[in-house]
């Protein structure tokens, strides 16, 4: 990070602070699957009766 008067200059890596934990992918995938199953059950169970 460099400072030029009132202006601050940062690199792309410093600005994004990119970290990609794999746990987030698992949570998103499992929650998507759970939502799909729940919505399917809400639709299928009344259709059977």
Automatic annotation (TrEMBL):
Q: Please identify the protein, giving its name as recorded.
A: Uncharacterized protein
Q: Which residues cross the membrane?
A: 26-48
Region (Disordered) residue ranges read 1-21
Organism, by scientific name, is Parasphingorhabdus cellanae
Compositional bias segments (type: Basic and acidic residues):
1-16
Keywords (A to Z) from UniProt = Membrane, Transmembrane, Transmembrane helix
